[in-house]
Amino acid sequence: MGTALAFYLASAIAVIASARVITSANPVHALLYLVVSLLAVAMIFFSLGAPFAAALEMIVYAGAIMVLFVFVVMMLNLGSAVIEQEKQWLSPRAWAGPAILSLMLLVELFRSIGMESDHMVNTATIGPKAVGVSLFGPYVLAVELASMLLLSAMVAAWHLGRPNDHKE
Amino acid sequence: MTFTVQQFQALLPLVITCATSVLVMLSIAWRRHHAFNTLVCMLGLNAALVSVYFAAQVGPQAVTPLFIVDGYSLFFTGLILAAGLASVTLINTYIDSFKYNREEMYLLMTIATAGGIVMASAHHFASLFIGLELLSVSLFGLVGYSFHRPRALEAAIKYLVLSATASAVLLFGIALIYSQFGSLAFSEIGPQLHEDARPIVLIGLAMLLIGLAFKLSLAPFHLWTPDVYEGAPAPVGAFLATAAKVAVFAVTVRFLLLEAIGALQIPAIFHTLAAIAIASILVGNLLALRQNNIKRILGYSSIAHFGYLLVLLLTGGPVFGVEGFAAYLTIYVVTSLSSFGVVTLMSKCGQDRDADQLHDLRGLFWRRPYLATLMTVSLLSLGGIPLTAGFIGKFYVIVAAMTFQSSWGWAMLAAIVAGSAVGIYFYLRVMVNLYLAKPGMHKFEAQLGWGQHTSGLMVLCASALVVYIGVYPETLMQLVQIAKAAGVQ
User: Fold this and answer.
1) Which of B2, B3, B147 to mutate to test the interface with A (most CBs of A within 10 A)?
2) Which pLDDT tens digit goes with each residue over B105-129?
3) Which residues are CB-neighbours of A86 under 8 A, at least 6 positions away?
4) Which of A147, A148, A167 to mutate to test the interface with B (most CBs of B within 10 A)?
5) Under an 8 A CB cutoff, do B107 and A164 touch?
6) How confident is the model at residue A168 (pLDDT cuts 50, 70, 90)?
């Protein structure tokens, strides 16, 4: 029952945070909620018995990718009003909502660490080894093809991102 | 995971195509020499096309749970490779006048072709999705490739956003199906679908079909098609209309006709698909009526043609359906390549738009009579006039709908007849422009020696095939038996 509660709570937080992502007019607010939403998804993985996937979600999405997003958005807003804007972002109105949701997730995480593992779908916990075995076993071709996918995405982005000096 | 030699041989077309893209990348890094990079790309794709023959020697092979290489997948692999090769041929002369990097187009084209091959042999939702993304992401780069044109980036953004949405819907559908059956393999889901059509499975199936219908630009998910066709460079339009759609349709048919035939017997799914087919035929043909842009007309025409194909899928059954739609798709590919080819031969990438307005074609017959003849042949074939290949394709569709003997069959037949009648009008409208008297000024002109270029030769061959298949369909019918054999199993 404990993990069921954790699952539903984390799902609720994920849904609320995602709804706030698309309703926020301010990009930085939206991004903060997106981080919370990804953290909540990590918590969902954790409650389903996949701690490795949860850790990856945390490190890759909430950590690396979202920090890049936040940096880019902040850098795009360079200008005279930038200090005023930074002050505005530090007001409680901007961070209170995401902070409360994150705090709820943290409490939930602490609660579930101490508990017996009675996962809802899986009886076993899926660790890094199981993920590795299936990635490089039956799914090895998919992994190879994913590298082609990244190559094509990179080439496309690089080509389209070139400065266009045609009009000069 | 260990591979046997047979499995490796079966996978050769895919391996060679992927290796070609790596080689093209390395040769670009070594030196930006346009002709050399084209040569590498073409040799690689030709080698992949030849290797289809060797892959066929080892018989049906399941390679990991993700892929199955049988006659069906090899037929469509060959078709996709031929269409990719033809598009690469078209690019060669077209892109010579582009001011920026020209070589990446070959790289993206090869990766997109590899994505198509992955889908043709996909036997699992994971490989379906990864093939679809390989195709879509490369196409996004290709559609916006000539970014100095105002329309190109608009088309690329539209394609990116809408195709990502469709992929998300598709993934959600796959997740819902997985949540009920606990498997992603077609062969394990297929038998259970019919027995166990719970509402959540139906929703998942519907979302899956929405995602696929978007990629096939069936009505009402067709809204992106004309804009993207218009904005994309003409050779990319050719690829988008042929290889990309063949790949998606091949995997759709593998899932619906060969693996999960029960899905079509669920009334809700059947009725929805029948309505989509009728809507696509009517919408595609009616909206093309008032267009003045050939690429848009071809876009709407492809919506209608995939409506016809969907009729074939719904009414043909596994045996006749697979044969018919393999034949129809081959005909459609050849015809589209020839019509997009003529537009490509008239255009240059360096200009601010392609020669795609109807008035650009006006009087073409008096300037480039042979080119105008090729265009006429392909338009007649798109319209389904006898003695061209298009007639054979339409014949298959109508026979399937007639023998189906149900009210939906007759309704679809009525839509086909009405759609074809409307279609003739706008195909003839383009054709009339080709023969109008010569006006004074021309912005666009095919080079005088267009027939001696590889791309010109390719268009000539495609048009010759259109007539050959129309007059003597026997060869094609023998060829599609390769694909049909898998359907009978």
Assistant:
1) B147
2) 999 999 999 999 999 999 999 999 9
3) none
4) A148
5) no
6) very low
Cβ separation B111–A152 shorter than 8 A = yes
Q: Give the H or E element holding residue A165.
A: none
Alpha-carbon gap, residue B17 to B35, rounded angstroms:
19
Average pLDDT, chain B: 89
Q: Does residue B400 carry a pLDDT above 60?
A: yes
Query: What does the DSSP 8-state code read for residue B452?
Result: G
- What single-letter amino acid sits at B295? K
Inter-chain CB proximity B141 and A156 less than 8 Å: yes
Q: What CA–CA distance (Å, rounded) separates A33 from A18?
A: 7
Q: Coil, strand or helix: which one is A137?
A: coil
As a whole number of angstroms, the distance between CA B297 and CA A13 comes to 48
Give the pLDDT confidence of A13-71 residue by residue, as tens digits.
Answer: 999 999 998 988 777 788 888 888 999 999 888 888 888 888 998 899 888 888 888 77
Cβ separation A155–B21 shorter than 8 A: no
Nearest CA-CA distance, residue A90 and chain B, Å: 33
Q: Whole-angstrom Cα distance, residue A119 to residue A124?
A: 8
Q: What angle do CA A114, A120, B175 make, to 5 degrees?
A: 130
Determine contact: A157 vs chain B, CB below 8 A: yes
Cα–Cα dist B249/B272, whole Å: 17
- Counting beta carbons within 10 angstroms of the beta carbon of residue B464, is it exposed (0 to 12), middle (13 to 18) or buried (19 or more)? middle
User: Do residue B1 and residue A138 have CB atoms under 8 angstroms apart?
Assistant: yes
Q: What is the per-residue pLDDT across B201-226, written as a single tens digit (0 to 9) for each?
A: 899 999 999 999 999 999 899 999 99
Model pTM score:
0.91
pLDDT digits (tens, 9 = 90+) for B120-159: 999 999 999 999 999 999 999 999 998 888 888 899 999 9
User: For A120-151, how does the pLDDT look when each residue is reduced to its tens digit (9 = 90+)?
Assistant: 555 677 888 988 998 888 899 999 999 999 99
Task: Indicate the Cα dihedral angle B349, B244, B81, B294, nearest 10°.
Answer: -40
| Contact state of A155 with B145 under an 8 Å Cβ cutoff | no
Question: What sign has the CA pseudo-torsion B141, B146, B148, B150?
Answer: negative
A133 to chain B, any CB pair closer than 8 A? The answer is no
User: What distance in Å separates the CA atoms of residue B45 and residue B84, rounded to the nearest whole number?
Assistant: 8
CB contact (8 A) between residue B118 and residue A156: no
Q: What DSSP state is assigned to residue B293?
A: B
Q: What does B59-100 look like in DSSP terms, one character per residue?
A: -SEEETTTEEESHHHHHHHHHHHHHHHHHHHHHHHHGGG-SS
pLDDT band at B489 (very low <50, low <70, confident <90, very high): very low
A–B CB contacts, 8 A cutoff, strictly below: 82
Neighboring chain A residues of B138 at a CB cutoff of 8 Å: 152, 156
Three-state SS for A8?
Answer: helix
Q: Does A140 touch chain B (CB under 8 A)?
A: yes
Minimum CA–CA partner of B2 in chain A: A137
Answer yes or no: do B126 and A142 touch at CB < 8 A. yes
A140: nearest CA partner in chain B: B1
> Tens of pLDDT along A96-111?
888 888 888 888 877 7
